[in-house]
Amino acid sequence: MPVAGELVTGLKCRLCGKLYPKEALNFCTDDFGPLEVAYDYEAVGRTFTRESIASRPKNMWRYHELLPIDGEPTVGKHVGCTPLIRADRLAKALGVAELYIKNDAVNHPSLSFKDRVVAVALSKAVELGFQTVGCASTGNLAGSVAANAAAAGLDAYVLIPDGLEQGKILGATIYGAKVIAIEGNYDHVNRLCSQIAFRYGWGFVNVNLRPFYAEGSKTMGFEIAEDLGWRAPEHVVAPMAGGSLIGKLHKAFHELDRLGLMNGPVRTKMFGAQAAGCNPISNTVKTGANKVKPVRNPDTIAKSLAIGDPADGFFASKLIRDTGGWSEDVDDEAIVEAMQLLAETEGVWAETAGGVTVAVARKLIEQGKIDRDGSTVLCITGNGLKTQEALADRLARPVVIKPTMEAFDALVESYGAFAEVGAIAAGA
Amino acid sequence: MPVAGELVTGLKCRLCGKLYPKEALNFCTDDFGPLEVAYDYEAVGRTFTRESIASRPKNMWRYHELLPIDGEPTVGKHVGCTPLIRADRLAKALGVAELYIKNDAVNHPSLSFKDRVVAVALSKAVELGFQTVGCASTGNLAGSVAANAAAAGLDAYVLIPDGLEQGKILGATIYGAKVIAIEGNYDHVNRLCSQIAFRYGWGFVNVNLRPFYAEGSKTMGFEIAEDLGWRAPEHVVAPMAGGSLIGKLHKAFHELDRLGLMNGPVRTKMFGAQAAGCNPISNTVKTGANKVKPVRNPDTIAKSLAIGDPADGFFASKLIRDTGGWSEDVDDEAIVEAMQLLAETEGVWAETAGGVTVAVARKLIEQGKIDRDGSTVLCITGNGLKTQEALADRLARPVVIKPTMEAFDALVESYGAFAEVGAIAAGA
Question: Which residues are annotated as modified residue N6-(pyridoxal phosphate)lysine in the UniProt record (chains A, B) (predicted)?
């Protein structure tokens, strides 16, 4: 595919607009505003057409003109193009007409949407000459950096808060990454990683490579639009941790619109989902505050969303208000019930963050914030196998019987037993 | 897509060739031989071309003319088209020139190749009017039947041997399936399911729906050939439980050849991988026996392969010998080491069965049974998140430090600590 190098004009401060070269920088030296990748959209438009995209392999790189690497991708070549599921059974349960699940629970290699951002960040890291990369992670990013770095032959340092789920810890150590748990929460980990990236000159995907990294999330939006026939949905519900994803989904729809690829106008309302135990952004939206008040001690089973001081919290809350969307948060009980509802209606086993998204969507529908007649896309960002702890105590063990028809017949006859099995499955 | 109904002529006994109608039957009433789907290849050839296939969505149904359902698929519409990874780092470690990983660890929805067979079996179950479906499973099939039945609104009964991994049990109960553990091993479960299917008239995917079910595995072979540029590899290494997959991979290459879609001849040697703790098929191959001697008490961490009396064991061992391939088995230690090698070189975290495949491939390469210069495809069939128990004790916990640069610097300086972290990751 054509080299996209000349399509990226540089990095631009989101506050003052000052331009910087496309290097490992993440904030403006004048006002400390975050930097964002700037593109030459006129040049992009020359090759970025529906026809050219349709002719490319089914992975996230089919949108390469709007991804900030200069040459061919060298990391994460197979990432993306996950299923957009028409979710009629869940739609019926939630009482809406047109519902879709964007299922990044099966994104590969590491089963979360983080493979999208890591594919871009590590491909860029290779271009910039980094041999050692790292990240501050609440779990999914740890596995994605570890897996993709291993495949690329890069050394990976993964820093996580102490006490993450076993699946997420094993899911990083198995790849040979140096996994270091920090006594404290994600914000402690993140601050330390900023110092490490500066001191050691390593490429931290969500620190000094963050502007490039964050652009990878746009591919989730590009895929949603392409799979909907180059249309944007009326509502998108996305989970919020650092608050970056929801903004990039919105940016994706508007970039496609700007380039003339969309059928009809883009009027998508953005809805943000958080856990009640860590709701700095939803709290900002609901109170109408002008700045995000950090949550000092996050406490939720949705550990992948447990970021008390979200880097993009301000921009996310502003975007949600500007688009006419809203934000809500839900407790652990509602999270688990929603995980089960999603699994039982659509056969999708999401991690706790997916339960947050579905539970918040249900709440927003009941509040009338999400129009029951409009089209809605729920973004599922991680896999349920990674957060088994949240269910292990709530789903009872299976009934155990002897290997005989008598035993099975007795089980079938005992409606009580069935009610129980059914109830277990239904989470009662 | 065109209805494929008239392309299936019926079911044919693999022993005597007697023809049966395409109904829920699985064995010949004359000699109890297994039944296999028969196609009208001339009719298939009219629409099954490289061009027509290339124009279809990227999922297993792009090969629908060679899948035994009469109408449109109603279950598992997004299944398949998993990555075929050029595995140069693993190739270097194993000392071969051209190596590929067919990564069904990320097949969806349930993260194993079983979604392929279940998509066909349940789409057929819907056509035949079954509302209640079931399976006998060693784990992956349980999750796939539960997930796909949930999405289709079917009632699912999943029978498993007692003592499976938590990830596989939760991975079935979460979808609302009725999960029943049987005191005994898989062979006890399988015998009971045969009685249940007969007594209750339910659609058991790997019992009375088995002929349709088994055909789904061919799509793994179709995808390998298409991704290799319509070529068959010189060697394929596949894990063996019941022994069906290896035969269907071979059948897929030869069906494509028969229809004139392949570049060059199909001379693929088939290699079967088993665990030393349950090796009925590899033992048959290695001893040259004429019949498969069942393993009474399987004992291996590769629980998904722990079938002591494999339904297709005879056909698998004959195929392996006829193609000039071979079979081996490996112990638990080798399985875990191979899981780590695959993860550290290619960023693929496979379940224990994947460790069996990689460890057996290494053994066969060292034995000279697999030619170091030929092209080899390793079939990875399930995800590592499902068998965490096999690693939990072997991968030590991450190093825990305070959130300070002093603590991090000390860790970096202490090569001992690093050697330890490295050693942990390297499985030493």
Answer: 114
Nearest to A386 among B148, B385, B418 (CB): B385
What digits encode the pLDDT tens for the residues B186-238?
999 999 999 999 999 999 999 999 999 999 999 999 999 999 999 999 999 99
> How many Cβ pairs within 8 Å bridge chains A and B?
244
How close does chain B come to A402, measured CA to CA in Å?
5
- The residues facing A400 across adjacent strands are B181
- Alpha-carbon dihedral A153, A159, A162, A168, rounded to 10 degrees: -40
List Cβ neighbours of A280 (8 Å cut-off, separation of 6 or more): A274, A292, A293, A294, A295, A307, A308, A309, A310, A313
Tell if the CB–CB gap between A344 and B175 is shorter than 8 Å.
Answer: yes
C-alpha to C-alpha distance for A30 and A32, rounded to whole angstroms: 6
Question: What tens digit of pLDDT does each residue of B294-314 get?
Answer: 999 999 999 999 999 999 999
pLDDT of B6: 83
Which stretches does DSSP call E strand in B8-154? 8-13, 19-20, 35-39, 84-86, 98-103, 132-136
Smallest CA–CA distance from A346 into chain B, residue: B151
Helix, strand or coil for residue B75?
coil
Contacts of B426 in chain A (CB under 8 A): 176
Walk me through the domains of chain A, giving residue ranges and CATH numbers.
8-66 (no CATH), 84-107+215-390 (3.40.50.1100), 113-210 (3.40.50.1100), 397-427 (no CATH)
The ipTM assigned to this model is: 0.94
Round to whole Å and give the CA distance between A261 and A268. 16
Residue B317 has pLDDT above 70, yes or no: yes
pTM score, two decimals?
A: 0.95
pLDDT per residue as tens digits for the range B59-115: 999 999 999 999 999 999 999 999 999 999 999 999 999 999 999 999 999 999 999
**Pairing verdict, β A155-161 and A269-275:** unpaired
